[in-house]
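Q: Focus on the shape:
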Amino acid sequence: MKNLKDLIISGVQCLPIVEGGKGIGMSNYNTAGNFAKCGAVGTISGVNPDIIDDNGNIIEMNIKSTNRFDRHMEMIQHSIKGIISQAKRAKDICGNNGRVHLNVLWEMGGTEQILNESLDKVKGLINGVVCGAGMPYKLAEICAKYKVYYYPIVSSMRAFRALWLRSFKKTKEWLGGVVYECPWRAGGHNGLTNAENPFQPQDSYPRIVELRKMMNSVGLEETPIIIAGGVWNLEEYDKYLDNPEIGKVAFQFGT
């Protein structure tokens, strides 16, 4: 599209195209590496990702413990090792092109430990963390510690405002963008509240304008909004481009 312009995403100029997280492991080093290779943003799923050995083979998860806690800890360590191996191989594919992000679910057990241990070991390989499925108040603190950008997934201005006031305003320099995921079109964790009717879809446009107004009011005019949830054809979003009501915008596919 003629109006599609590069954006600064996680510190470098990229195509405003982002790979969706697909937490079932379908977003891996191969997809992420190739998105980034083309100058866009690739995303590795951090939800029990496969461990890839030096020969490119998958090391199957083999949980040996017999009690619930120890099995849980084994799964956490598998995820950490998987993220590290996937990040290295994604970097091999993309080189210095684009950006590689990591997608995690905040309500998944062990997310804080997984982020801390994996980000400590993948410096320079993972450029941003995308996080949904809950209200990730501690996401900003963790990412700032490792100098990695963070991208919360929200479905309303109210959700982002709560995150901003309680946490994000303290580390706004590492807020890479805000992912707006349409709760009526998304294929994943729909962020509907009791005030919204799941059978009466609302137009995303006024909801995104509301989000942008709130962001502008706290000095986030340059922070992009990444539109997600049922994004298939950019021609449907022509009115979002070069639009002062929307501001800087990117698009996430395969959410």
Remarks:
- The longest strand covers residues 99-105.
- The mean pLDDT is 90.
- The first helix runs from residue 29 to 37.
- The chain is about 30% helix and 20% strand.
